[in-house]
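Record 1 of the preview.
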Amino acid sequence: MNPHSGKQVDVLIVGAGFGGIGQAYALRNHGLSIKVIDSLHDIGGTWLTNTYPGATSDTESFVYRFSWDKEDLQTYPWSRRYLKQPEILEYLRQFVEKHDLRKYVQFNTEMLSAAWDEGSGLWEVSVSNGETYWARYFIPAMGQLSKVNLPSIPGIANFHGLITHSSHWDKDIDLTNKRVGVIGCGASGVQIITAIAPQVASLTAFIRHPQFTVRSNDKPVNHQHRD
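->
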């Protein structure tokens, strides 16, 4: 293996969501050369792909942000105790612009392989555009919530209605007065059920294990609370 045959950086980060962007900011400030690759077309990670009805952070808004930026905590407004997907995505984008991080990110680029090379003491990472990166530090920050995981359900191929997955929600679907079934009652399932219930004709939730869901007590945030 020849490190001179590819691009060399101190740090290669895979993923441009909260984890990847946070690492890029911190390590750049330590004087390291960095590169971030992401298979998507923009910043955001799971908050770019998960656009289903009711998509919301289940962590309070004053916590779901980068803790080291105290100025941002006071100056960047948030409207409610729990932020919806568009607000979270906009927050992350403005953070990237504020700290000039976009120039480090290469979009539409998927990692194909990563291997440690004992001889050079570097990571060899091959990506989908044919390039090879050699890095002292390799940080996978892909997360686990942006790709569709379709269960093997007997007979699903014979279903003639509309099917959409929370990770790749079809925005053109109109559920008004429709008969809807939601499979799963994790965070996404609960949020979808809550959001669409007022508009559908009937709603059935298919849940393997019954569970108790606590009310979020979401409400607008005033200036006193923010201060």
